[in-house]
Amino acid sequence: MSLFSFARKARRPRSAQTAKDRLQILLAHERSGGGVEKTDYLPLLQRDIVAAIRKYVAITENDVEIRMERGDQMSSLEINIEMPRGAPR
Amino acid sequence: MTIELKEKPPLGRVIVITSGKGGVGKTTSAAAISAGLAKQGFRTVVIDFDVGLRNLDMTMGCERRVVFDFINVIQGDARLKQAMIRDKRLDNLFILPTSQTRDKNALTKEGVEKVLDDLKQEFDYIVCDSPAGIEHGAQMAMFFADEAVVVTNPEVSSVRDSDRVLGLLSSQTKRAETADAEPVKAQVLLTRHDPARVRSGEMMTVEDVLEILAVPLLGVIPESPAILRASNIGTPVVLDEPSVARRAYEDAVRRLTGTEVEMRIEGEHRPKLFQRLFGRAS
Ligand SMILES: Nc1ncnc2c1ncn2[C@@H]1O[C@H](COP(=O)(O)OP(=O)(O)OP(=O)(O)O)[C@@H](O)[C@H]1O
Ligand SMILES: [Mg+2]
């Protein structure tokens, strides 16, 4: 290894690698939807969840919160449902 | 629903970041300004109006967490609270991303107004990142603005487009259409400024640009590798390591909130050797 290539490597800004990694994860998700984002199903999912829970407990759309975090191996979907006080358990 | 106690009623100021010309640094500035405002303690939300070309999420580094967007809210498919993403670094900073799949016509004037009115109840500053151009998307981003930051590069087509946008701000906005409303307060943010090139006469000076546009100057942001670094890692430049660009944005934000700050016009300091080895390209 020449000294120059070592120097070059050391100087390479790490931020460029971060940029590439972020893009790869994001684009993998965007492309897999065939142009349409996969997350477009989320409003429908939310509606279905609300409808299912409403069969048992009186909740509104406002009581359901959906959060997502996309990763390179897997993504996590977090669904929080706020139960009204005194709801049957 | 929880009722939160607040010390002060929110300011509810709407600021559009606009330019006409594309690629001049609107999104970079929207991210830096909103993070700068939040850093000062203001409750701040930044909205991406560039429907179909979502980019603010990447600049803010929250692209993996987008679930719902501005258009979902306008069309009633999601609540505003659900679509807003809380910044991981500052808990008084929120991002409202746009849709990657719809087109600009999904932005209706009524829909945008409703969302902005709701946000005004909660936030001090609502920063709107405009798309390039002067079409529907850009018009929607500026229509309800109280203030405008016109991002301009010291370059002929950018200055010309800024002039055009200043014209629209004084004629095609709610404030312009309302009989005795104050006009939109417009200020120029000169970005990608390179003092070395100004000295050599290759680039118009700050004074040249201001003489032509005749509006107040909010700040001068240097051409800087710190901006590329910040966008690579998804951090607004004011939350990244110290740089001249970061300080220039911080000064601009302080002016925006009414503090008088002396205008510093500096280039990014670069190591001499680095400059000689790799030239100006970056
Ligand atoms: N001061 C600066 N120094 C160096 N590079 C910059 C600076 N400001 C912006 N850039 C770079 O210019 C490019 C365009 O910036 P940005 O996306 O913020 O522009 P924009 O006006 O939002 O573009 P569009 O019109 O497409 O929305 C980006 O690569 C950004 O990193
Ligand atoms: Mg942009």
Automatic annotation (TrEMBL), chain A:
<dbReference type="InterPro" id="IPR036707">
    <property type="entry name" value="MinE_sf"/>
</dbReference>
<dbReference type="Pfam" id="PF03776">
    <property type="entry name" value="MinE"/>
</dbReference>
<dbReference type="GO" id="GO:0032955">
    <property type="term" value="P:regulation of division septum assembly"/>
</dbReference>
<comment type="similarity">
    <text>Belongs to the MinE family.</text>
</comment>
<keyword id="KW-0131">Cell cycle</keyword>
<dbReference type="GO" id="GO:0051301">
    <property type="term" value="P:cell division"/>
</dbReference>
<dbReference type="InterPro" id="IPR005527">
    <property type="entry name" value="MinE"/>
</dbReference>
<keyword id="KW-0132">Cell division</keyword>
<protein>
    <recommendedName>
        <fullName>Cell division topological specificity factor</fullName>
    </recommendedName>
</protein>
<comment type="function">
    <text>Prevents the cell division inhibition by proteins MinC and MinD at internal division sites while permitting inhibition at polar sites. This ensures cell division at the proper site by restricting the formation of a division septum at the midpoint of the long axis of the cell.</text>
</comment>
From TrEMBL, chain B:
<dbReference type="InterPro" id="IPR010223">
    <property type="entry name" value="MinD"/>
</dbReference>
<comment type="function">
    <text>ATPase required for the correct placement of the division site. Cell division inhibitors MinC and MinD act in concert to form an inhibitor capable of blocking formation of the polar Z ring septums. Rapidly oscillates between the poles of the cell to destabilize FtsZ filaments that have formed before they mature into polar Z rings.</text>
</comment>
<dbReference type="GO" id="GO:0005524">
    <property type="term" value="F:ATP binding"/>
</dbReference>
<comment type="subunit">
    <text>Interacts with MinC and FtsZ.</text>
</comment>
<dbReference type="Pfam" id="PF13614">
    <property type="entry name" value="AAA_31"/>
</dbReference>
<dbReference type="GO" id="GO:0000917">
    <property type="term" value="P:division septum assembly"/>
</dbReference>
<dbReference type="InterPro" id="IPR027417">
    <property type="entry name" value="P-loop_NTPase"/>
</dbReference>
<dbReference type="GO" id="GO:0009898">
    <property type="term" value="C:cytoplasmic side of plasma membrane"/>
</dbReference>
<dbReference type="InterPro" id="IPR025669">
    <property type="entry name" value="AAA_dom"/>
</dbReference>
<dbReference type="GO" id="GO:0005829">
    <property type="term" value="C:cytosol"/>
</dbReference>
<feature type="binding site">
    <location>
        <begin position="21"/>
        <end position="28"/>
    </location>
    <ligand>
        <name>ATP</name>
    </ligand>
</feature>
<comment type="similarity">
    <text>Belongs to the ParA family. MinD subfamily.</text>
</comment>
<keyword id="KW-0717">Septation</keyword>
<dbReference type="InterPro" id="IPR050625">
    <property type="entry name" value="ParA/MinD_ATPase"/>
</dbReference>
<keyword id="KW-0067">ATP-binding</keyword>
<dbReference type="InterPro" id="IPR025501">
    <property type="entry name" value="MinD_FleN"/>
</dbReference>
<keyword id="KW-0131">Cell cycle</keyword>
<protein>
    <recommendedName>
        <fullName>Septum site-determining protein MinD</fullName>
    </recommendedName>
</protein>
<feature type="domain" description="AAA">
    <location>
        <begin position="13"/>
        <end position="160"/>
    </location>
</feature>
<dbReference type="GO" id="GO:0051782">
    <property type="term" value="P:negative regulation of cell division"/>
</dbReference>
<keyword id="KW-0132">Cell division</keyword>
<dbReference type="GO" id="GO:0016887">
    <property type="term" value="F:ATP hydrolysis activity"/>
</dbReference>
